[in-house]
Please model this.
Amino acid sequence: MGKEFQINQEQLSQLNKLIQDLSAEQLVWVNGYLSGIINGKKNAIDVPIISDQKSSESITILFGTHTGHSKEIAMDLHDRVLALGFDAKIQGLDFYTKNDLKKEKYLFLIVSTHGEGEAPIQAEDLYEYVHGKRAPKLPDTKYAVLALGDKTYKKYCQTGIDFDLAFTKLGAQAILPVQTSDVAYEEIAEQWIEKVIGELKNLEPEAAVSIKSASASVPKKKFNRANPYYAEVLEKVRITTTDSEKEIYHVEISLENSGIEYTAGDSIGILPNNPIDLVDLIIDKLEDDPERIVTIDEKEISLFRALQNKLEITVLNREVLEKYKAITQNKDLELLLNNEDELENYLHGADAYDLLEDYPGEITSDQFLSTLRGLYARLYSISSGPRANPEEVHITIASVRYNRKKRDRNGACSSYITDEINVGDHLPIYIDKNESFRLPDDENKPLIMVGAGTGVAPYRSFLQEREQNKAKGKSWLFFGNQRFKKDFLYQLEWQKFLKKGILQKLDVAFSRDQEEKAYVQHRLKENGKEIFQWLENGAHFYICGDKKYMAKDVQTSLLEIIQNEGGITSEKAEEYLKNMKKEKRLLLDVY
Model:
């Protein structure tokens, strides 16, 4: 921030005098008032008047999150509850005192599910507590749960569902049914908050003054999945050689005058267009008119635009197949749905045209559209440091191209950017906060960063940020790809970081440059003794890349290093690793 925007000491003193006697609710009012001025509202009449009366009902809002989404929703709900005049507290589950649970009168929980039905680390202790023998009875507790998840996984929103069942079993009363939400959670979360506020208004109507105005005062996130920012592409450069098997691009995007801010470790969400050739194939298979008007999300649009811009057609999941089977009654599809291994194999690479072709049945175009999910944004780890690149954001993107059943396939977003987007074009984007993948607050802490392919992207952001901050902590990068001469992403930049002392060590693994394949986990084992020394000195260990193979293999290698170099049992090594996760020293950004 430039000096011309800084507040001077006299202004700061006056501001402190004004706010020192204000209550939490009044501070929320001031926040809304200032937000109104910033957004062009000149008149204080647009801002709510908060009642001096405070409700006697105590409300607790808890969140359990992996990336930070649950926390954002909890903060939005907290603002709305305070604006009603209620006494409300907000807390992450990792700081919540379990013995307080039996005292809760109104409890609202927003919690995500991590991986295949696992509770996020932040929620593990309370999750085990409410499912254990020492869990208290909760006859006086009223509650509601918002569960975040991803329908790609079989155990969709399982953590939130489990909490809801546990609360009910303990005698608590649900004032709303558990609400589940897929990756496009914003609209559902807002609707859930509205329902919660509606229930709270019924408790003490006299405490809720100027409710309509209060609702309007809560600042909305300016840009998100539902309301993206159209950003100009400043640069697009291929950073693998033209004869490489991997087609990887470095893309620079303008944030000038957008007001968008991000932190090293965040991701960027991009709303793609589906491949036109796939859209054409589906329309031909349905024997329909591409210009026929259909209704999607209560809006009228042509069939072609619906399949290109609004619906997910490049990937499938179990829910889509179940909806399709319910309409077509295809027996072969029913058999597939009852065989988990075969289903997983089929879903890996199959698209909406495959479904129509492989499992035919009586189904109209409109019925088929009803089985499809909305087109979701693709997330890419940001590869630029915000301080080093003011008003810009960079991403590193690999084109997804493969052949299945004698048909060439393309990833929806990667091919959209690499094939259709040029410098000067605009992309619909938003920032996806990732609080589970952050630099340590103590800049003297060492970093060990492990990434394969485009998984190296956030480490470019980390090192740029550390350079700007003149951080003293040591950094060690492990990078893997196929070939040294073709696929060494950002090679010159790593060398510059080494020369400047921003990066102390660099170990690489190029799997196809020798007969026996070598991966990053092999380089970790070769350096096991020194890695353990770094860990003992408080190093933060980062993993970014493929979750199915690379991330698992790296964690397995890390466990072996801890066990062997620490001279401890496998159980103690598991405990060591678990403690690293709880201390936020083992951080993963996997996909």
Summary: Residues 1-5, 35-55, 205-221 have pLDDT under 50 and may be disordered.
